[in-house]
Amino acid sequence: MLHFLYLLIAFSSAALTTLVLLPWVLKHAYNRGLYALRATSSENKDKVLSLGGSVLVPSILIGMTLSMVLMNEGEDLDQSIKTRTMLLGCGVMVVYLIGLLDDLFGLSASLRFVIQILAALSLPLCDLYLSNLHGFMWIEAIPGYVGVVLTVFFVVVMVNAINMVDGIDGLASMYVILCLICFGFCFFDSGNLIYSYIASAMVGALTVFLHYNMFGSIEKRTKTFMGDSGSMMLGFSLAYLSIKYICDEDNGSFDVQERMLLCMSLLFVPFIDLFRVVLERLFQGDRLFAADKRHIQYKLMSAGIYGRLTLLCVLAMVLVIILINLLLTLCSWEISYIFIADVSLYVVFMYILNRRIVQYRSTMALMENFKERFRENAAVARKVCILTPRFPIPENGGDVLRINNIARQLKREGYELVLVSFEDNGSPQLFEAERIYDKVYTVHRDPFNSLLQSVIHLFLGRAMQCG
Question: Bridge partners of 420?
């Protein structure tokens, strides 16, 4: 019971520290103009602070230290754990500082890459590296130098993967919180309590930051982005906790292959997405470190999935992968076959998503052409365009009758009427439209997507009748 109190202390103290530091940092940074420009439309740009992640490391250190000091008062603390914790702090601080400098002054991608490699070397220097893959891709024990290279590669990939995930509000924070909750439980189960306290402190700091990131106001100067100082630190921490958990000698309730599978399941989506983006850049001759819109969150937005729905879709992907891997494990699948199944599902998903992007762009091009023709005709003719969102229900009702009554009045006054109807069942619901309107256009939406949009808008308390 006492250990749960330490977890709560780590969470609360980190959250409280963030709650105190973040408004102060926002106030002074906004006054000094330390902005990150984010385009919200072709004509407008919002000035938003990109230093929100700078308060995470101090908050986490305070929460972690307080819980460890209280624990050490009542119990003997293993000195080897203290050494590795100090190593984690050293590596985290290097990555954090280089990210902070990048947020403040802007650093070249190659310099950041070199510093990330140097920070990643802190793990094998403390004799913490992958020496056995435990059947992953049918590989067991590996030579020491191979394990060192693989460990450094894994850390650098995760640092950049989480940095790339931080593309929309709340995504990186919520994803990392999910991973930290799982790692915190697993370390607590194995008796390695210090790392569960670290995870708890990180969750506490991220929870407060998440509020400012998703619900902050630009007008009130409470809106903030995480920045490289936060995302790179979180990526390094996840990589460290993953390797520590895989190499941990205290198994707890899970054997080593189950621990390997858990880490693979949690980190699969950002890892495979970064791998896909790098391959696309190589095949197309683009620079590896160039910023672009190839990542999964931007692909979803290109398919017409915007706002919080994009966030929910990415998190749903992570949860689906975890659930599928759990079911396959219960069916006695080997970890290598599970990984191949995950990659196959990801490839199929990207194929479907790319097709959806093509269809969405075609629809948008049609709508732009229609709007251009409408603007041209409006200058020389009396025309009215009527938009009717019809999803998902009712198919007929008072709205249709009211719209048609208004249209009849306009028709009698000599207007040329054009109807644009958004449908979700694949067939036009025109009713009396042929006798009223001069032209009728229908835009079909996927029924599942329409229903999902309605549920999301109901949850967010927004109007559901929107296109």
Answer: 387, 441
Q: What one-letter code names the amino acid at 163?
A: N
Place of tokens 């008072």: 398
Q: What is the pLDDT of residues 296-342, one digit of tens each?
A: 989 998 888 877 888 999 999 999 999 999 999 999 899 999 999 99
CA distance 352 to 359: 11
pLDDT tens digits along 177-230: 999 999 999 998 888 888 898 899 999 999 999 999 888 877 787 888 888 888
In DSSP notation, 366-421 reads HHHHHHHHHHHHHTTS-EEEEEEE--SS-SSSHHHHHHHHHHHHHHHTT-EEEEEE
Rounded CA gap, 47 and 32, in Å? Answer: 12
Q: Whose CA is closest to 400, among 439, 428, 371?
A: 428
| First and final C-alpha spacing in the chain | 52
Domain locations in the chain as residue ranges? 2-253, 262-377, 381-460
Q: What is this structure's pTM?
A: 0.79
Identity (one letter) of the amino acid at 399?
Answer: D
Side chain identity at 219, as an amino acid letter? E
